[in-house]
Amino acid sequence: VLCRASNSAVCYLETWKSNGNTPEKTKQHVVMRVCVFSALLLLAVATVSTAEKERYVKPAVGEDGVHLLDVFESKASFGAGWVRSEATRSGADEGIARYDGTWAVEEARTLGALRGDRGLVMKSAARHYGASAELSPPFDFGAGQPLLLQYEVRFQDGMECGGAYVKLLQADKWEGGAALTADTPYTVMFGPDKCGTNNKVHFILQFRHPLTGELREHHLSSPPAFDATSPLSQLFTLVLSPDNTFEIRINDESARTGALLVDLEPPISPPATIADPADRKPADWVDEETVADPEAIKPADWDDDAPELIPDADARKPDGWLENAPVMVADPEAVKPADWDDDEDGDWVAPAIPNPDCARVGCGPWMPPQIPNPAYRGPWHAPRIANPAFRGAWKPREIDNPDYFVETDPFRRLPAIAAAGFELWSVTPNVLFDNLVVASRRAPVKTLAAHWRHKVEAERVLLAAEMGATGGLLDPAFWQQKWFEFAQAVQNYPYIGIALAALVVMPVVLLSVCCRRPANDAAADAGGAAKRPSGQSGQSGRRLLGGGARGSGRG
Question: Does pTM top 0.70 for this prediction?
Answer without folding.
Answer: no
